[in-house]
Design goal:
The complex is a heterodimer of chains A (277) and B (195).
Chain A: H1 10-26, H2 35-48, H3 54-63, H4 65-75, H5 86-100, E1 106-111, H6 117-128, E2 135-141, H7 144-152, E3 154-156, H8 160-169, E4 180-183, E5 186-189, E6 197-201, E7 213-218, H9 227-240, E8 241-249, E9 264-268, E10 273-276
Parallel strand pairs in A: 1-2, 1-7, 2-6, 7-8
Antiparallel strand pairs in A: 3-5, 4-5, 8-10, 9-10
Helix pairs in contact in A: 1-3, 3-4
Chain B: E1 9-14, H1 18-26, E2 37-41, H2 51-58, E3 62-65, E4 76-79, E5 85-88, E6 94-97, H3 109-120, E7 124-128, H4 137-145, E8 149-153, H5 162-170, E9 175-177, H6 179-191
Parallel strand pairs in B: 1-2, 1-7, 2-4, 3-4, 7-8, 8-9
Antiparallel strand pairs in B: 5-6
Helix pairs in contact in B: 1-6, 3-4, 4-5
Chain lengths: 277, 195
């Protein structure tokens, strides 16, 4: 599978053909994802979907939408948690909320929301700050199954103890259990949190800006993109954000290597909170 | 067995006993040392790590915790951040992933070595040190299979022999050395490198 060619082996060729096929057939664009983790996930998919080669997987994906749907679950890594990096949420409370408070209505975009843990975390934070009722939260992702789970707002109880500790560390003013009802191994989050959340299919790779926003939180999504696609995403964020709007990234992500570096300034650098210049 | 020349990147994995082992092989490198180094060192699950500070104070290299998309530069040493896999891209940059743990580890040594092997092939030197896990064995074997130079700490000299022994069971590396030997090997890799 790794026999040498000028392009670095059959596997690289097969990967490029697979993502091209996915794009042409299903309009999902993985062509500018980081190759190293894409390779890992596709090889993982070969095992899961019982295919001998990437070419065999490509044939099945082209002729069987159900296989593509299963592959999409593997390629999009639905890994999320509530109040991940509590200091990020604390910094939002301390440095971003006071400015959001000055707007009569607020729009927040959680780009790449996966299964929704971060959207609910932000909704809780905004409710405690008295801002949720005048906020519209756009929660977008490319994976319809993840969006469905996000809409349902049911998370496994196994993680609740960790989430609860993170919620407290993030400056939570109540108890996380005030926001959910636990039953049958799942925690159903308060439906009133979702009243102003719009869950929508949106791709940072192929779609354009849909609304002006005041805060965009996009954490650990761009780590899977190559530089070109990161630049596209930063361009969308810049276009969507209002004057002096806020952008929150993952704790190991940076704008430093982007052509949009000069379009943003660091507001709380250790927490990766930036502000549109 | 291949000669240690034409290397452009060293990737090192270590677990239990790894801090001391790394300080031993990376300490007192010559000031002209340019070969970039990427490291996965397993730590107890913590959200913040002080590895970069700890090593930065003791080594002549420029030491960072890796940031997503960061270019790999000569004379720099990059640690995987806690809670993320560290991967090497073919365009000589680093990427991160929140994918689940591999062999109970995130960062995983296998993920680092496997990605580096695909990205650098015969220009990669992969090293595996002391540790109480089998993580890294498959990655080292992949590095060797794709033409990379491979070295494993002699299990007899390792604080915990499990990790180097697991690698030796999978792959016959180009060198099996104690820590002073691995230190000298790094200098040799740098002197004959293409950096």
């Amino acid at each position: 599978m790794d026999s040498e060619t000028p392009h670095g082996g059959n596997l690289e060729i097969e990967l490029r053909l697979l993502v091209e096929a996915i794009y042409l057939k299903y309009s999902h664009d993985f062509r500018d994802y980081s190759l190293a983790s894409l390779r890992r996930r596709v090889l993982h998919a070969l095992t899961q979907l019982d295919c001998a080669t990437v070419s065999a997987l490509q044939e099945r994906v082209l002729h069987d939408p159900h296989t593509f749907s299963r592959l999409l679950q593997i390629l999009t890594i639905p890994v999320s948690e509530m109040f991940r990096d509590p200091s990020y949420f604390l910094a939002l409370r301390q440095h971003v909320v006071p400015v959001l408070r000055t707007y009569p209505s607020i729009k927040v975009w959680v780009a790449g929301c996966s299964t929704g843990e971060e959207v609910y975390s932000l909704a809780i934070l905004l409710r405690e700050e008295g801002l949720l009722e005048r906020t519209i939260l756009y929660a977008t992702d490319i994976n319809p199954q993840s969006l469905e789970r996000a809409r349902a707002g049911i998370f496994a109880t196994a993680q609740l103890a960790d989430y609860s500790a993170s919620y407290q560390a993030a400056g939570g003013t109540r108890s996380l259990s005030d926001y959910y009802t636990a039953a049958y191994g799942g925690a159903l989050f308060d439906r009133s949190l979702c009243e102003n959340i719009i869950f929508a299919d949106h791709s940072l790779a192929t779609d354009s800006v849909f609304s002006e926003t005041h805060l965009i939180s996009c954490r650990n999504v761009l780590i899977y993109f190559n530089k070109k696609l990161q630049d596209r995403a930063f361009g969308l964020f810049h276009e969507s954000l209002c004057r002096r709007g806020f952008l929150g990234l993952g704790s190991k992500e940076t704008l430093d290597f982007s052509s949009h570096a000069k379009d943003f300034e660091a507001l709380v650098r250790p927490e990766r909170i930036f502000r549109k210049r | 067995m291949r000669a240690p020349h034409g290397i452009a990147l060293a990737a090192i994995g270590a677990s239990a006993g790894g801090v001391e082992a790394l300080l031993r092989i990376l300490g007192d490198l010559p000031p002209r040392f340019r070969l970039p180094i990427v490291v996965v060192l397993h730590l107890p699950d913590e959200r913040t790590s002080h590895l970069a500070e700890l090593f930065g104070q003791r080594l002549a290299l420029t030491v960072h915790e890796a940031t997503a998309g960061e270019p790999i530069l000569p004379g720099h040493l990059y640690f995987a951040p806690p809670g993320y896999h560290l991967l090497v891209e073919a365009d000589q940059s680093l990427s991160l992933s929140c994918e689940g743990p591999v062999l109970f580890s995130r960062p995983s040594i296998d993920v680092l070595l496997d990605s580096a092997a695909h990205a650098y092939r015969e220009r990669l030197a992969a090293m595996l040190l002391t540790g109480a896990s089998a993580d890294g064995a498959a990655g080292l074997a992949k590095a060797g299979a794709l033409g990379g130079f491979t070295a494993v700490q002699d299990p007899a000299s390792a604080k915990v022999a499990t990790m180097p022994a697991a690698a030796l069971a999978l792959w016959q590396p180009d060198r099996v050395l104690d820590l002073p030997g691995l230190h000298r090997l790094l200098i040799e890799l740098d002197e004959t490198s293409i950096c």
